C-alpha cells in the first residue's frame, strides 16, 4: 500500500515537471515571435515589450550560470565551437566574394535588361490570392518570421541548456549549427556561381550596385556575349567546342593596386568610387542582385527547425516548421527568390543537419559507453557469477557505471573562469549577430 501511495503522490509532480519541461521554452519562443510582430500593430508597445523580454531572457540566463553543472562538457566542446565559428566566417567571406562576382561579371546593362524566369510557384500564389478568403491571404502576406527570428529561436534553444531543456553541451549544439551553416553557405556559393540566373527584381542592381561597370567582364566579352542570342553561333560553338567569334571593343577595366590581393581584381571588378582596398569594397556589399540558388534565409530557417526538432521536439518544433513554410511562401510571393531556391534550401538544410550529427547529438552517448564497457567485461562478469564472487561483480559494475560518466580532471577555478568567459562571449555574439542582421 505504501509503495502504491508513493506512486500516486509522485504522479502529479511528474506530470507538472513534464508540462514545465515541454512547455517553458515553447512559450518563450511564442512570446518572442508575438512581441516582435507588434512592430506592425503597435510600434510603441513593441519597443517596450521587446526590451523587457530581452532583459528577462538575459537576466534569466545569467542567473542560471552558477547553478549549471555541465561546464566540463562545455569546456570540451569549446574547441569545436571556435573552430566552427572560424569555418563559418570563412564560408561567409567566400560567399561574399562570389556574390560580388556574379553581380559584376555581366555588367549593369545585363541586369537591367534581363527578364525574370517563369516561376510556377509564383503563379500558384497569385492564383490562391483570388480564391482564398482575404483574411487567409493577409495572414500569408504578414511578416511574421524573418531571418533574425530564426537566429533568435536558435539562440534561445542553445541557452536553454542552462535550464536543462536541451541536452548539454550547448556549445556543442552551437558548433554543429555553425559548422552546418558553413557547409551550406559553401555549397550555396558554388551553386549560384556555376550558372548565373537573372534577378526577380531587375531594378535591384541600380540601387545596390550602381558603381558596377555597365559593360561585361572581359571573360564574358569573349566567351558569352558573342554567343548569347545568335542560334547559328551557338550551333557552331557546340560543333567546334572552341571560341571563334570576334570581340567588340569595350572600355578598359579599372585595376587598383591591391598588392598581394590583386588576384581578386578580376573577380570583384572594382570601380574608382568603391574605395582603394578590396576590404572596403566587400564591406559595402549586400545581397546579390541576381538570383542566388539557393535561398540563404531559408537555409537558416531549415537548420533552426531541424535543431529544435532534434534537441527539443514537441509542439513547438511543429510550430517552427509552420513558420518555415510561411517564410518560404513569402520569399516567393515577394520575389526575393524563385520557388526552386526555396525548395532546394529546405531539403539541403535537412540533409546537412543529419550529416553533421557527429558534432552534437541528442542521443545518450553515456549509455552507449556503458554498453560497450559491459560487453568488454562480459566474460569476467560471467566468471565472477559462476564463482559467486559478489565483490568482483560489484567492482565490475562500478567500472561499467564509471565508463558512462564524464571525467572531470580540471580545477574548479578553471571551470568557473571558462563559465564567465563563455557567458560573456555568447551574449556578445548574440548582440553582434542581431546588429548585423537587423536589416534582414
From TrEMBL:
Identification of the protein by name: Sphingomyelin synthase-like domain-containing protein
Compartment list: Membrane
Topology of this chain in the membrane: Multi-pass membrane protein
The UniProt record lists the keyword Membrane: yes
Keywords: Lipid metabolism, Membrane, Sphingolipid metabolism, Transferase, Transmembrane, Transmembrane helix
Similarity field: Belongs to the sphingomyelin synthase family.
Entries under Pfam families matching the protein: PAP2_C
Keyword Disulfide bond belongs to the record: no
InterPro entries reported for this sequence: Sphingomyelin_synth-like, Sphingomyelin_synth-like_dom
Ranges for domain Sphingomyelin synthase-like: 288-355
GO molecular function: ceramide cholinephosphotransferase activity; sphingomyelin synthase activity
UniProt-listed GO biological process terms: ceramide biosynthetic process
Coarse class of the protein's main subcellular location: membrane
Record GO cellular component, one term: Golgi membrane
Transmembrane segments: 21-41, 47-67, 79-102, 147-166, 178-197, 300-326, 338-360, 413-436
